[in-house]
Each structure stands twice: as C-alpha cells, then as structure tokens.
Amino acid sequence: MVTAVTLAKVIYTLCFMDKSLINYEIALLSEPCMLLGASIGVLCNIMFPEWLITALFVLFLATSTVKTVQSGCKLWSKETEKERVKVEVEVEERESGIEVPLLEEERDVKRTGAPNLVPWKDLLVLVMVWMCFFLIHVLIGDENGKGVINIKPCGVTYWLITASVIKHNLESLPMYVFPVAAILTGVLSGLFGIGGGLLLNPVFLQIGVPPQTAAATSALMVSFSASMSMVQYILLGMTRINEAVMYAILCFVASIIGLVTMQRLVARSGRVSLVVFLVSGLMVLSTVVITLFGVLDVWEQITNGDYMGFKQLC
Questions:
Q1: Torsion-angle region of 300 (φ positive above 0: left; ψ -120 to 50: alpha; else: beta)
Q2: DSSP H/E element including 31
Q3: With 185 labelled, which of 103, 144, 195, 202 sits at a CA distance of 20 to 30 A?
Q4: Is residue 285 one of the residues assigned to a domain?
Q5: 100 lies in a domain?
Q6: What is the pLDDT of residues 160-194, one digit of tens each?
Q7: First to last CA, the chain
C-alpha cells in the first residue's frame, strides 16, 4: 500500500508537475543512510516492549506536530508579506507607468531557472543502492530466518552480512545534516514499523527544505524502501497477495486524487503553506489514534499478565 501511494506521487510529479521538485541530491545523500537506519530500527523493534515503542512514537509525533505547525505559521506569514509587497509593487507600477524592477527572489528564479529534466545518473545510483540492500535483506530473510539461503537467525553468517552493511555505510557517511537526519528517520521508521514519509516530511521541513520539494523527495525515497520490503515479502512467501493488491490499487487512485486536489488548492491560493498544515493535521490525527490504540493494547497486556519488559534480540 505504501509503495502504491509513493509510486503514484513520483509518477504524477514526473509527468504532470515540475520535475525539479524532486531533489535528487538530498535523496542520494539520505537514502542509503535511511535504509541503514531502518535496519537498526527493526532490531530495536524486536527488543523494545510494545508500550515503550508506542510512548516513543507518540512523543515523537507530538513534538514534530508542534514544530511543523510553527513552520507552517512562519511560512504563512512570509507568503502574506510577499503578497503584500507584490500588491504594492503593482500599484506603484500602475500609478507611475514605469516598470518596477523584480523583487530579488523573483529575479533569482528567472535568472537561474533550473532545467526541468530527470537526472538519470542519480536515479541509477539510487536503484543500485536499492538492489544492494534488497539482496542483503533477502539473504538474511525474515524474523524466522526464512531467506533464499538457509542461515541460522543471529548466527555467524547473519551477523557478518549485517555488519557488512553497517561498515560500508559508516565508511561512506559524509558529515552532513541530511545523512544524520536520514539515519535517525530510518531508525524511527524501523522501530515504529511505519513508512518513512510521515517521519521524513517533518524532518525535511525543520531542516528548511521547501514543502513541495520535501513532499516529492520523501515520496521518492520512501518508494525505494517500501518497494524493497514489498518484493522481499513476496519472495519469502507472503500470503493474501490478492487482498494486498486490491488495497494497493485503491491507495494508488486515492493518492492521485489527493495530489490533484492539493495542486489545485495551492495554485488557486498561492500558498504552499497549505501543504505544511495538511501534514500537521495528519500528524495530529495520527497522534490521537496511536495514543488511543496504544493505551488499549497496553491495558490488554496488563490484564492478560503478559511480559512487558525488554526482549532478547535472538
């Protein structure tokens, strides 16, 4: 389902929107680190008790929601000020009959105007990264040790393969904010067991990536990680594939409808901050729902007398 949603976003962006909205440099810096973080997060998910995972998730969502709303308010104020200046310039032009020079931001945009092309070389590198992680995860197998080859879960071969991933990524890890943020996002994604888009968007917004670029770039990155998991599950014998395909088709169509609606809203209002507020609204809803169901699950574990401490990795 996550693969279908992000695939719809990427296809729509490349075919009907500005292709430069996807920042391939950010994706190249972040994707390997995000996949590495997801692997670490999955190990933490195995060891951590359910109540702790839920509490950390709610804490992260609540904090990110507040930060995202603040970013949206700041962006709204900038858009309002920009619109006010634009109106004043137009009035001055009409009154004086002299063309007023463009604002500095508009002048820079018209002068630089990046070509609206897909950098296939960068995309090829991302595909190669996808293949490397995919092959490693298929070799390791699922939580029961079922892979394309028979290896003992948490055995010597298992940890050699896992260590090779971590070593390779740490050696090539540049000391920049995007890789660090991607690793943390990947860890949280693997720990909480959700798609990275809900986590990537707030992180990118806090770093200062424009909202539309953040949404398009995170969709591309999540499409790689989600599709890797999807193919892995299918090869390892996932059941109820027909049901999954049906939901995926519904998600794909719904995603296209949402993209078209949001694009028209932004075009009519001229406010990209609407994207930020939409993300904030979804995060608020997620926080409430996850808190509610998390409390119910913890209460059920308490009443059943289940073990609620840390678990062994192997």
A1: alpha
A2: helix 24-47
A3: 144
A4: yes
A5: no
A6: 666 665 555 544 444 456 777 777 887 887 777 67
A7: 30
